[in-house]
Amino acid sequence: MSCDRPITALSSLPTCPHCHSSVLKGHYDLSGLDRHQWIQTLRQRPPSLWRYQELLPALKPQHRVTLGEGYTPLVPALRLGAAWGANHVYLKDERQNPTGSFKDRQATVALSILKARGVQRLVLASTGNVGIAYAAYGSRAGIATTIFFPQDVPPEKVRETQVYGSTVVQLPKNYDETKVAAAQFAQAEGWFLDQGVKGFAGVESMKTMAFEIAEQLGWRSPDWYIQGVSGGLGPIGVAKGFEELLALGLVDKVPALGLIQTAGCDPLVQAWKAGAAEVTAIDHPKTTILPLATGNPGVSYPILKALLDRHGGAMTTVTDEVAFDTLRRVAGQEGISVEPATAVAIAGTLDLIDQGIIAPHETVIINCSGHTYPVSQAILDRRQLKAN
Amino acid sequence: MSCDRPITALSSLPTCPHCHSSVLKGHYDLSGLDRHQWIQTLRQRPPSLWRYQELLPALKPQHRVTLGEGYTPLVPALRLGAAWGANHVYLKDERQNPTGSFKDRQATVALSILKARGVQRLVLASTGNVGIAYAAYGSRAGIATTIFFPQDVPPEKVRETQVYGSTVVQLPKNYDETKVAAAQFAQAEGWFLDQGVKGFAGVESMKTMAFEIAEQLGWRSPDWYIQGVSGGLGPIGVAKGFEELLALGLVDKVPALGLIQTAGCDPLVQAWKAGAAEVTAIDHPKTTILPLATGNPGVSYPILKALLDRHGGAMTTVTDEVAFDTLRRVAGQEGISVEPATAVAIAGTLDLIDQGIIAPHETVIINCSGHTYPVSQAILDRRQLKAN
To answer: In a designed cystine with A242, which of A29, A64, A210, B314 is the match (CB 3.0 to 4.6 A)?
Structure first.
């Protein structure tokens, strides 16, 4: 399903030129890297994901499109962790990125590669966060971005995308349909189409979370990495990051992956629980949590299943209602205001603890993927808050 | 006007117990600090403002209320700088803080001190950002917060404050009047009133921006520190930070301060341009940029004037209209979406360059104080953006 042939960053293409697979993987020659010297060198570098440049696509300094993203804090979940009887739960606070979500990682790597390749126009479909991130980095790179949004993207996120001067096309369609429309448009215009998990930059960028977590824990792996998942790009990247550190001898394992979806859109969870080899798409996702409303995760399922088979892990679902309750508890008890997709991940963590799948002594990292800020007032209205 | 007597952090009070001045200043015994060793030690610490703990109020670890705030990136202004003929303009990206603004610095220090002192209830008046920051850190500290907002605070900021479980009191008054109401309420209830620039934590926290800037520039001072100012807390703190580094021999000067206000609310600028010893309050501020709508900056003016007399600097104004134009240019050209108060600072920087007050070769740091995100849709509506 995924192509493992070595390619170099600057020749990266939407498909592998050899086998035409749509999922590309970066390879790095690590043989010349002295791990002891490297971790000393890292300490002299600024706290950005580019500190790991030896394990990122090779780019000339003038092509690096950066806003100081990454190296986000690992914040202990104090009261929630204690309430759960778990003392080693941390939130990787991805809100503290330039546009307020972990998608800035993808954007900095993708736009840097595209700038190096001379790309001038970029098209992508997004449920919000990726669109905002690419709009920001596109503006910094001088690359014109056209963002396709499905119908339910709230005006707050549309506005933020437009602030950067991006062209926004919002369609009366769901996300899966919008992706098709964006692809057709890009092909018709001859513009570059960003493809998320299928693209080279997606996985290569998300793996930097693994590097940071390992460095922040004193060069060791956590027992679990948990994320609310749609296409599954994040955990695929994070697992690759830990695999690279394992190959370097800097950590001793790849963490188990905890993948959480909403009850109204859980194709990955259903396939995994059934032990299926392929995923069955859900035609009409029923969730108000749009970033997780991918009914057809396509190519990512077999990759994720293989990762869970190899390194351990679990998938589970939570309802939208439980997620919103969790959002308010996390804000009120930890001082961290998260997007609903993050609340899904946190609620799912509790579920895995309740099920006895995560043990209380284990070190658990939850991707705190984004802020409450840009979430629609319509979804998270003041009455809901006052009812709390 | 301001009290310089040494006090210890944990005995800090709203007024000096000796002279009853309302502006308190922290003093640190720096004689035991080996500066060469210290800057090596810093590199081993996480990228948070607490890395400078030797120059911050002494607190036991269990009292530190932190979300990994501070040590925000210094992002070069690429195209704007080039357009201005200035190549050393940097944005200190304070958006990359837990609640998206530089007020998180104040909140982490203030709530830590209050937690150490056993304070359980806190009252403050805010135009938005401070309220959100204190609500978040209050929630993490387990301290109940009541936030007084004036009439024009947008629902987006009110909502964000409520997410954290804070009590919000929004009054049909302007900011200066709301401060009075909050003070009366706090006194009547016997709850702790946070006083911003008059408080110990305000100045002590804001000075960490100076430490970070100096470290990020390789232990040297910039030529200018620029900020959009209301009460002037930020630059007072930053100047104190550079003064402490100067005393340690780590930098060779305190930067000139560039203080920018809106044309509709510029009491500091008017007083400074007239060479006045005291400020004259503006009764009816005329600006839609609420964080800068302090008509009566009170005690801060003489402190700021003294700083400009001693270290150099300038004050100027920009109109709201120019600020909003600048907001769109910065987002569209630098990939940085800022709050209007930040746009005021950036537009003011250009004005000081145009006036020849800032020379193109000088190193200029602009406080990129907050995000566009939580700014009202009503102020920054989609029509305005499309007209761009």
So the answer is: A210
